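::Encoded backbone::
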Amino acid sequence: MVFSRTSLRQWLRAFILAVFVAGFAMGQEARDQEPRDVEVQLLRGKATFRLYPSQLEQPRAIMIFGSGDGGWTDWEDVVCEWLCQSGVICAGVNLREYAETDYNQATIGADMATITIATMKESKQTELPVFYGGWS
């Protein structure tokens, strides 16, 4: 099945909204944990991503959330905050910084796997479903 760029954006927006609404519907007690930077060793050297912990006691999923070519902005920050308030652990990746050095499919795949594993270890959540998304 092939999706147009517009339909993928619409799907992502609907997904984010659904997760956000589901968080309120579940009625779990909120936690107050601040996002923090996590350093990882990627194939191309050290990098940092922003970890947004779930604000619910029982997280629902992990989202590796990449910025567009404009870099990490307040918009991506707000989306990750919304997601973590509804039980999603987010790893915010500035893909503008990442793209400053050439890469191929194998490199980005390995680097995203490294970020995913670091997110699981940092959050102590290894059994949650993982989603990859972002904004461009």
Notes: The helical segments are 5-26, 74-85, 95-98, 105-123. Strands lie at 36-42, 45-52, 61-66, 88-93, 130-134. DSSP finds four helices and five strands in the chain.
